[in-house]
Amino acid sequence: MAIVNLTQAAHMAGISRVTLNEHIKKGKISKTEDATGNKGIDTAELMRVYGSLVNNPAKEGSKAEQPLHSSLQQEIATLRQELKAAHDLLDEKENHIATLKQMNLLLAEKIPVPTPPQPEPTPELLMQLEPRVTPEPTPRPESRRGLWSRIFSRGYVKEREGL
To answer: Which residues of 54-77 are buried (b: 16+ CB within 10 A; e: fewer)?
Structure first.
């Protein structure tokens, strides 16, 4: 079979050149040399490792790429039409929003907004608004202390020293 360079081999296998070089370094695929001393990969070796090949390097850039190229062009044209339709729809929505805003402003100017009546202050309302005075807390009577707290408190020591 024919020997092709690394770029052509990667293209035929449908992988990148970096991946092909990694496979060569790992020993998954081997490089060969043709009669003129050019290094490359035999197409039989490519078929052994990667299965069927994408295209023949002799026909590169010819009929095999044209259907792919024309299908991409058709897809690009379809996407451009969809994008234009989306832009038109967006413009319609923006115009509708602007119209609604204008109508809202016109309605706001025509309809007077009534103010709620203010209630007259009543004695109950005045009592609610005045700050309340809280009575001062009454002092709590001293609670009885337990036996141990009387024995070990500082007051007991002072009483004892005073005796």
So the answer is: ebebeeeeeeeeeeeeeeeeeeee
Cα distance between residue 130 and residue 128, in whole Å: 6
pLDDT, tens digit, for every residue of 105-160? 888 777 766 777 776 777 777 777 766 666 677 766 666 667 777 777 665 555 55
Return the pLDDT at 24: 92
Give per-residue burial for 130-158: e unless 16+ CB within 10 Å, then b: eeeeeeeeeeeeeeeeeeeeeeeeeeeee
Helices 43-50 and 6-13, interaxial angle, to 10°? 30
Domain boundaries of the chain, sorted by first residue: 3-59, 61-110
List all residues 6 or more positions away from 92 whose beta carbon is below 8 Å from its beta carbon: none
pTM (whole model) above 0.70: no
